[in-house]
Specification:
The chain is mainly alpha-helical. The radius of gyration is 20 Å and the shape is flat. It is 75% helix and 0% strand. It starts with a helix and ends in an 8-residue tail after the last helix. Helix 2 runs antiparallel to helix 3. The protein folds into two domains: 35 residues; 61 residues.
Length: 96
């Protein structure tokens, strides 16, 4: 009985999230909101989170071994990609 309740709650949550995403998409198309990307902020996010990901990776390797080093890899990878995207588009950084 508990398993069925958990599956039901997850299904209702997924339907709610799907409804929310569809509503945002429909409203966004009606208003035609044009947003520009600030690549300097993306670069700064990469700079901030890359050392954090590397430190997390090192801590898990030191304390738990190589098998649990998977916890720092996604954060390091996403941070490195933000860093590279921001750096490659540095000519589009917002002028202050």
């Amino acid at each position: 009985m508990d398993y069925f309740m958990m599956i039901s709650i997850i299904a209702i949550a997924l339907v709610g999230v799907l409804f929310f995403l569809v509503a945002i998409t429909v409203l966004g198309r009606k208003n035609r909101i044009v947003l520009s990307t600030d690549y300097h902020k993306i670069f700064v996010i990469g700079i901030v989170f890359l050392p954090l990901g590397i430190a997390l990776l090192a801590l898990f390797i030191i304390f738990y071994g190589w098998a649990s080093s998977i916890f720092g890899v996604p954060l390091s990878g996403i941070s490195a990609s933000y860093l590279l995207v921001g750096w490659m588009n540095r000519n589009r950084w917002a002028k202050k």
